């Protein structure tokens, strides 16, 4: 058992996600920074899909009531065991009675805590991920609260030596200014040429409305091309006839503030999606904090697929490196 | 100890508020006495309101940020002088 002394700002149980129900309106949820999430599971010898804790901005205080093997990855929210700083990106042993707490966030936004065996919560539609808007998955469908107890599963695949560390060049560094790559479309034709150009030349600031559902950005107002309202579309110029929203797609309701839809977002609707964040950069997006800057960079599909390949290669390198030890 | 100053930091990024609600009075005025654990403001992020509490007794000397400023994580919010 892991006892929750303080829950942190928003700590949820997440696995790889609730995959396969998008067409019935169920978003995947799941870890937002999949790279860090996967690295944490690999470091404790879990199946890659084992449920871990996703910690946002401010860490919880947790008390282990049994010996456990853990790993912390992601942004830098310096972890402490019984008040002593411990390294991230490394396999750690904790003893029954040990308390895990965190300092203020230094870089990035989200930390993943994997425990050998995984966090044991019921599978809902094939996943342990928390989807708070619907109140399903994870622990009772909600973020952790003080007094909660988390069961540790028994699904560890292999033993990893304590002190095993991810190679330095495979540990991401997070910045306050970010370039996020996007593929333009599906409804980019709705923006004026001038607004399209502004969209890619502005530094957008992440607002306080930035969570697992989506990130909202502040910059300047964008304009849409004048048109006659098509049958089935809303009256606002930012409306189109309903379509499925790709994960990572960016819409600009009324042209006011762009919103990037992420893991817990609505799966479709009637706003023009002007571009979509490439899958390899969703991990980086998840580590951007409120008040930090993002510049969007347009790339083509080939570049996006190449970035996905490189991402898969980095994960393969982590696994290979750990197996060699 | 008499002129010791403690800075109150925000552990999270977000929008800063000195009032519990738009139509309410501020939690605390500059120059007022404050006790450890008193709420001096709120930071809103991810549709949560996080209470910023004084960590020491004293006088809330000044706020270093304005109502509705967007804060970085770790930003200094106020100075409390011990007395």
Describe it for me?
Chain A: This is Allophanate hydrolase 2 subunit 2. Chain A: One of its GO terms (molecular function) is hydrolase activity. Chain A: It holds the Pfam family CT_A_B. The complex is a heterodimer of chains A (325) and B (83). Chain A has 325 residues and is of the alpha+beta class. Chain A has two domains: 2-170, no CATH class; 177-305, Cyclophilin, CATH 2.40.100.10. Chain A has helices at residues 34-43, 193-201, 279-285, 301-323, and strands spanning 2-6, 10-14, 52-56, 61-64, 68-76, 79-81, 84-85, 92-94, 99-102, 107-115, 119-120, 149-152, 177-184, 204-210, 214-218, 239-244, 249-251, 259-261, 268-271, 273-277, 293-298. In chain A, α1 (34-43) packs parallel to α4. The model of chain A has no long low-confidence stretch (mean pLDDT 96). Chain B has 83 residues and is mainly beta. Chain B has one domain (5-81): RNA polymerase II/Efflux pump adaptor protein, barrel-sandwich hybrid domain (OB fold (Dihydrolipoamide Acetyltransferase, E2P), Beta Barrel), CATH 2.40.50. In chain B, the strands form two sheets. Chain B has a four-stranded antiparallel sheet, with no helix packed on it. Chain B is globular, with a radius of gyration of 12 Å.
Short summary:
The complex is a heterodimer of chains A (325) and B (83). With 325 residues, chain A is of the alpha+beta class.
Label this structure with key terms.
heterodimer; A: 325 residues; alpha+beta; Cyclophilin; 2 domains; seven-stranded antiparallel sheet; seven-stranded mixed barrel; 4 helices; 31% strand; B: 83 residues; mainly beta; OB fold (Dihydrolipoamide Acetyltransferase, E2P); four-stranded antiparallel sheet
